[in-house]
Amino acid sequence: MNSLIGTYECKVDAKGRLMLPAALKKQLAPVLQNGFVLKRAVFQPCLELYPMAEWEALMQNINKLNRFKKKNNDFIRRFTAGVKVVEVDATGRLLVPKDLVAFAGISKEIVVSSAINIVEIWDKDRYEQAIDDATGDFADLAEEVMGQDDEHGIS
Asked: In sequence order, which residues have a C-beta less than 8 Å from that of residue 12 and are 6 or more positions away?
């Protein structure tokens, strides 16, 4: 799958359904029929939507962890807590389960944002706060992550 592109503002109805933006739905068209996995994000109060193939690739890596190490078992349990298989219906809607709505603090206004090979789903106010909080540190973060001159840097 190619990298996903775009950040979109949407609304969620009272039942927790969101209409995927047309541009994002078009990008996801090749994988729509396979379904998705929706989970809590690890570092932020948002949700992560994984196309099934991306989820399965991630699970292959996680499955390599030695489960006789307590830290690994604890990680697996916490990483997969609240994980749900979800599908996009014929009209392009995605139902977000109530426990995940509560985790992400989703109200009516949301932001759906691409994150390379997955989609993040945020409450709009929390998204804007996260972006604002990161603005001052972003230059330093970009230099640290992307400015390396070795094989892992892009420079």
From this structure: 18, 96, 101, 106, 107, 108, 109, 110
